[in-house]
Amino acid sequence: MTLPMRLRHWVRTRLVPALPDPLYDFVLLSHARLSHGMGPRWPNLSNPQRMSDKIIALKRFYRAPDASILADKLAVREVVKERVGAHALVPLLASADRPEAIDLDALPERFVVKPNHASGLILFCDKSRLDWPAAMATMRGWLATDYGVYAREYQYSGITPRLLVEADLGVIYGRVPQVHMIYCFAGMARYFWMDDERPSGRRRSLMDRNWQRQPYTMRYPMPEALPPRPERLEAMFEMADRMAAGQLFARVDVYDAPDRVLFNEITFHHNGGYLPFLPDWGDLAMGRELHLPPLGPGAR
């Protein structure tokens, strides 16, 4: 590892996690904004109006009902069965409390490994070129990390770490189905993030339930043309409705597979609240959709 890489690793794993919450939020929010041509900004948590500030306030001062169950990638499977049906689940091949307990010989040529107590971590495994000792080292690192502390998201601290081994959807369908993020407010799915991968880079549209595009986006620019309406759009919204029931705010992620909609995950603090809306006023526009109760000392 080169010196610049070691320095970045130290900043990410040692310095930033040690910061007090207000400074941590300022650093990560400002980094997201500076990366997209906007100036640094302190979150306003005493009277939040922006979507980013409201998500950070929820993270700091609110505890969503059943958050640790819904965020647990193993436990949530039972919730999906009850609310949607077993047909909406990615096939589970195995689960284990340590990598040594995974029977590699019993698994297919290609499979996927995830931790149950975090978001966005995944290993795509192909036995023809798999470095299993290195993969196990990665898994041990996952299991040893409290992502509630590392990412300042309380729901992950309430989860007993385990590993999931899932079927590789790319094997089942010939390609990994596209994942769509759905924003849910007061238990109702309202907005659909539609991504379009292009040689020139990703494009993103924010669509409402009537497939009307909103005049702002997040992180990636909008395409010129209106994206095509997915065939199973209403089924995706209905799944999100059921999974976000009873929640002030949640982001429900689903796979748009060729033959069905599959549940991916539910999260309560999209990107930790460090959201680079484009243009910047989109942060305020989306914030008007999220109505908060009084939160924390001095909130109003």
Notes on the structure:
With 300 residues, the chain is α+β, with helices and mostly antiparallel strands. The protein has a domain at 65-173. The protein is built from eleven helices and eleven strands. The chain has helices at 3-18, 21-34, 51-61, 67-71, 76-83, 132-143, 147-150, 154-157, 169-173, 233-243, 281-287, and strands spanning 92-96, 110-115, 123-126, 163-167, 178-185, 188-196, 203-208, 217-218, 249-256, 261-267, 277-278. Strands 7-6-5-9-10 form a five-stranded antiparallel sheet. The protein has a four-stranded antiparallel sheet with strand order 1-4-2-3. It has a two-stranded antiparallel sheet with strand order 8-11. The mean pLDDT is 93. InterPro entries: ATPgrasp_TupA. This is TupA-like ATPgrasp.
